[in-house]
Amino acid sequence: MQRTGGRGVDIVLNSLAEEKLQASVRCLANGGRFLEIGKFDMISNNSLDMSIFSKGISFHGVLLDKLHLSSLERKITLSKKIEEGLENGAIKPLCRKVFKRNEIEAAFRYMASGKHIGK
């Protein structure tokens, strides 16, 4: 909110849970879209402050693991969209650091330092 001068952001791609999810929702601008890729709060049936919807936001649960239930046509469409995004640079791979088998201690130290993204 500070970086946008109090306006908020148009889109949040969220995988955070509980209080951090709530804080992410509060960062949305009027008419913003919230894309939830995490499952913890959905599976736990955690509540969401409904007053946030007075800002005209939309909340979408994105469940990619359910893709296998989709039609072949939908799978092909998604595959093409991903391919296009990779080719035109709209989709970029996450930064990663790979450790060798004998570098377990270094890997745990790296994760403990909080410099990583994901698991």
UniProtKB/TrEMBL annotation:
Transmembrane segments: none
InterPro entries linked to this entry: ER (IPR020843), NAD(P)-bd_dom_sf (IPR036291), Polyketide_Synthase (IPR050444)
CDD domains: enoyl_red (cd05195)
Domain Enoyl reductase (ER), residue spans: 2-119
GO molecular function: oxidoreductase activity; transferase activity
Pfam families: ADH_zinc_N_2
Record key words, sorted: Transferase
UniProt protein name: Fatty acid synthase-like
